[in-house]
Amino acid sequence: MPTTVQPSITAHVHPLVLLSATDHYNRVAKDTKKRVVGVLLGQNKGKTVNISNSFAVPFEEDEKDPS
């Protein structure tokens, strides 16, 4: 039986993306159980994903729906 190898995918995350995500978390949800939501932007070139920017999305949990 032939084995199949899944091609590996490489993700390059720019430092500003990590800084923005960390800043958003620290401003909104530090020391709480709140979730934070955001968007990652970049390019997909074959087996390489280049994540170059991100932005926060204002989000409030619905207390009636705990999922």
From TrEMBL:
Keyword Transcription among record annotations: no
Pfam families: JAB (PF01398)
Keyword terms, alphabetized: Proteasome
Domain MPN: 11-67
MF GO annotations: metallopeptidase activity
Gene Ontology annotations of biological process type: proteasome-mediated ubiquitin-dependent protein catabolic process
GO terms for cellular component: proteasome complex
Stated name of the protein: Proteasome regulatory particle subunit
Organism name: Rhizopus azygosporus
Lineage: Eukaryota, Fungi, Fungi incertae sedis, Mucoromycota, Mucoromycotina
